[in-house]
Amino acid sequence: MITERKSEIIQEKVLPLVKRYLKDHVENYTIEIENASKPGDSWLGLMYNITIRDHRGDGKTILHVIAKMAPVQGPYRELLSVREIYCREIFVYDEVIPHFLKLLEDKGLRNTFCPFAKKYITTKNSCGETIVMENMKEKGFKSYHHRVLTDYSHAQLIMKELGRFHALSYALRDQNPKVYQHLEENCQESFLNTSIYESAIGIITTLGKAVLDTYDPIQDQREFEALKKSLQNASSALKPLFMEETYGKHSVINHGDPQIRNILFKYEDPVQTDLPTELCLIDWQLSRVASPVLDIQFFLCASTDKALRECQYENLVQDYYQSLSSFLRQLGSDPDVLIPFEILQRDLKNCGAFALYLSIWVLALNMKENENIPDLYNNNLTKEMIIKQFTEVPNEAYIQNIRNIVSDFIKYEYNF
């Protein structure tokens, strides 16, 4: 349903941008717009399905696109550094992805790996930052329910494709360092490295304390003391983990937020119809230069459960590295030089705090019921109201998920 407030936003901000693109490409068209998301589908975007039809002929569809627009409410924009993260996503679509696609084209690999939606037009206008991109669902891609942790077949595909995605950074740095340096300089941490940092730490420690309070300090002493110490050190421990200089030449351009809600899947196996065969990475607002471990460890914590990790964690890490190595060789570079497996293992051990803290926050958002989700069109939201909603524990399952991550990190001997 398009409310009056939504209609205003569409008329003032979305339609002019779409028409600007169409002016140079299409004549005599009609535009149909409808909501593209339900409450909880997107915390950082107003999403619209747009269908452009030929007005001259038989009314056939010319184009299906998605318009993704930044929230306009002041408190929301300030608290979540909305302008910064939208400028980051626009940079990824305008510059990072085109350079990656050129590399793939030059190597004759464009048809074997292309997990990106096509971008049509973007704008950085303040309070109107918008990306108009291909509607991948019209090409057969589907979303995976963000409140359901993923199964092995989806996890394996994601890990393999993250490996190939990260290989593009290593190959580009190796073969065209000047271009990569430009991308790297413009992909430093943009979300947590702003005024949001202290608020983020407050949200994480408040939620973490709720988990800590469920432990018996005597019977669960190991887990209790480990989490307690981690939360006490959160402010100083987190920041170095998303700084590029921590990882140097072993860093890559991360997706930044590769949880299951930010990945679309295609299912084209005629026998196993629930087996994913292809994916598309979306939502690049948190893209940053850092260790590739930040992507893979966060995905494994935020989108898989303890049972899957117990059976497949090491296999999934191996799947990731084998995919990265194989694709890097196809791209013409040497993985043994650029990212030895020992470096990956070192970073897995040292970066656990990042995955834990972000999972504490993200899982609390993902597991909320619809009625507890902030309304991005509500002009009466205050910063305090938003933080209150962000720090509410959604249910007991959330507590258990975080406890499981803590137990797993202790078992793996990861630092957190």
UniProtKB/TrEMBL annotation:
Pfam families: EcKL (PF02958)
Gene3D superfamilies reported for this sequence: 3.90.1200.10
Domain annotation CHK kinase-like: ranges: 131-330
Protein name per its UniProtKB record: CHK kinase-like domain-containing protein
Species of origin: Pyrocoelia pectoralis
